[in-house]
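Q: Convert this sequence to structure tokens.
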Amino acid sequence: MNNRAAGMAGGIAATVPAALFVALAGTALHRQSMLVGGVGLPWGALAALVLLGAVELWLGAAFRSVLPAAACGALCYALIGWWSTLEHGRRLIIGDTAGNIWIFGTAVVTVAALVWCRRYRVPADEVPQG
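A:
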């Protein structure tokens, strides 16, 4: 196994616990809101998206590839999508403003992180073979 394949395997192995953490912490955080002038501002959903973006950028920079960041975003999106479709009484994410920001913002933040992580890639001619 060459260094690039070993790094990719490590990136995918790090992605699963990172995505589980972000999905759980973001789901717990997304319902937080603050009243300003009688209007509820869902700051928790925005904070959850910042957490997701930070973890995806960390994965992209640490493993110099967009694949771990993409896998993290996809797994996180799948988990929160599943948690939003559970039966009534077990649903963790409801379809209100904060829930919609968290669910659909995940896709937007993941695409933005992937565009940014492209600059961390190592060109194929600079990868050490070993």
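The mean pLDDT is 86.
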